[in-house]
Amino acid sequence: AIVTGGATGLGKEFVLSLAKEGVNICFTYMREEEHPERLIETVKASANVEIIAVKTDLSDEQSRENLFATCIDRLGKADILVNNAGIWLSGYVTEISPQDWDLVMNVNLKAIFHLSQLFVNHCLQHDRTGRQMCFRKIFLSAPPTNQLGNFLRFWQSNLKNSLNFSKGPSTYSE
Question: What's the pTM?
Fold first, then answer.
């Protein structure tokens, strides 16, 4: 399994639950303060699974590709993808720079799409089924940001629903 944002919070709980089920795990972390080695020690003390942590900047395409390649190289396969990591900027829309907005979009949307694409291609290439989950937490604290939050939830919902795949031809038409 690959779990983004697996060192802390909900992601950490996913890692612990998957380990209890005997699943080998590759999880991401962003900063050393997240202490990924502690989670590895905890899992190894309670479950007989392989577990690795990969420092990943999910806003960066090359970093995401490195994550996926490292997981496959070290664990041999990936049949579960948990897109859990996400960021949110606090403040009003008028205070958010275009660069900060790009960072949010790259982590919260583009990373989901890119990792899902890598995952689906891996499953298809090896003729195996896989499971994927997407989780997001968005905290809104002021009415002017609600429209922005609703927009993000709409996109995340539609992206998640559009990531289904099959071996057959696309049935999309206009």
Answer: 0.77
